[in-house]
Design a protein that fits this description.
Order of helices and strands: EHHEHHEHHHEHEH
Helix content: 40-55%
Number of helices: 9
Low-confidence stretches: none
Shape: globular
Number of strands: 5
Radius of gyration: 15 Å
Distance between the termini: 17 Å
Strand order of the largest sheet: 2-1-3-4-5
Largest sheet: 5 strands, parallel
Amino acid sequence: MLAIGDSILAWHKWTGRDIPSVMGELLGARVENDAVAGARFSNASSFGRALGFDVRAQFRRGPWDLVLINGGANDFLSDCRCRACEDVLNALIAPDLSGEVATLLAEILAGGPEVIWMGYYASARSGQFSGCRPYLVEYDRRLARLAANTPRLTFVDSEAAVSRDERNLFAFDGIHPSAEGARRIGVFLAQSVAQ
């Protein structure tokens, strides 16, 4: 199993308590987690791409049975600054379901693996992402529509696994998952694959 994306998947990676590791343990799968905190879909810097800060560059072909992916929130945070969020949303995934995300997903699916897109949850404290929430909700809505019409692509909404009211499920910043939050989301994702 390969995991690519941003800090939600990368959080706790160095301790082995990250979402992909929990999921892999329950599924009996070997996991390679290439997610990087701060990663975006649209990182024009070649230096940033080389360091994994571009989700598209994190993907590499391999004998994957399953690819877990998330990302996009940092594009809103970095690129729109609450002024051009509709443009960022449409570049990622337009109303007709084209865009950077759809292109990457088609590339991954062409290699044969199952793909799980993990949707974002509402965090306990939005912080700098507070203005992004409506766009992230629409982003997830479009991704769910794409998955409903794409074989071997499944959208799983992590918000069904964690509630913003359960503060113990979030790290000190109120945005990233605590170890318990990561465990709960990993279990939820593993169960969705098993079904």
